[in-house]
Design brief:
The protein is built from 10 helices and 16 strands. With about 325 residues, it is α+β, with helices and mostly antiparallel strands. It has 2 domains: about 190 residues, Histidine kinase-like ATPase, C-terminal domain (Heat Shock Protein 90, 2-Layer Sandwich), CATH 3.30.565; about 130 residues, Ribosomal Protein S5, domain 2, CATH 3.30.230. Strands 1, 2, 3, 4, 5, 6, 7, 8 and 9 form a 9-stranded mixed β-sheet that branches. A 5-stranded mixed β-sheet has the order 10-11-14-12-13, sandwiched between helices. It has a two-stranded antiparallel sheet with strand order 15-16. A hairpin with a 5-residue loop joins strand 1 and strand 2. The longest helix has 18 residues. The N and C termini lie far apart (about 60 Å). Bound molecules: adenosine-5'-diphosphate and magnesium ion. The site of magnesium ion has 4 residues, from helix 2.
Amino acid sequence: DAAINRIAAGEVVERPASAVKELVENALDAGARRVEVAYAQGGKTLIRVTDDGCGISPGDLPLALSRHATSKIDGSDLLNIHTFGFRGEALPSLGAVGRLTITSRAAGHDGAEISVSGGQMAKVKPAALNGGTTVTLRDLFFATPARLKFMRTDRAETQAITDIVKRLAMAEPFVAFTLRDVSDGGDGRVTFRADAETGDMFDALHGRLARILGTDFADNALKIDAEREGLRMTGYAALPTYSRGSAVAQYLFVNGRPVRDKMMIGALRAAYMDVLSRDRHPAAALFIDCDPMLVDVNVHPAKSEVRFRDPGLARGLIVSGLRHALAEAGH
Ligand code: ADP
Ligand code: MG
């Protein structure tokens, strides 16, 4: 029902960047090898995500817009339902607060399109496309004027979109990403592009980090690979001699999802305490992976907090893993 979807939207979608996050995550879940994101006016008037993933059959299009309809939980997942987040809420929420169109084609099916605007769903129509999915979201929050007021400048919203796309791109180095500003119409202007990386996981991440943070970071970063009681930490962390001015370049992921977590940031700082002056932030891209039962990544759908079952263990892994790598490098 439209009113419930509008309320849920407030939980899932805070701003254009959170819509981008949900749509790109859907593309990645669909197995996309290539994801293109376009936006206009900081995402306020237009967000468009195109992927070459598995697509949605015409019959499933209305389901994709129904609350709690998800293709991603089977019986075995029900126990750790939290790790899958607020399932099946993103598309109905976006369709309740904006004008949403999904155009998609799954293998063995014809292409089709469905639109929903302010919660009103239209019929499925045929559409011509080769494969994959394009989701277009126009006029975010037009149906909820109170939310509309809370959006920041185009520039600030663009910055937030760019940041989340880069974080998602870091977590998926084998996927190609393009980000385009189409505010001035036409094909727009590419503002970020990362080709699919190759090699093993570390090679690919190294290449992607060079692309996103610069070769200066990648060439001055220590490879991190540490493990403790079922928690693994991988990634790259800057040598203390690497200086990025005052800009914060800390990218943290838990089970492949970008997070912002006080405990983890504190642990990163603590690891560098003796080798980096207090006014500088250690630059790092770190991935913690563990059994989903040991962590809750979806405390809240729009916030990227995490709750480890044993926070001390996670903190210990980060501090000792980084200190070990620093010591081995002579710091
Ligand atoms: P969730 O991702 O939690 O399942 P969503 O509301 O984000 O919920 O999406 C609903 C459903 O629509 C998904 O479970 C999936 O089956 C389908 N879907 C959404 N986006 C895509 C996409 N880009 N490619 C293929 N299927 C998609
Ligand atoms: Mg989703």
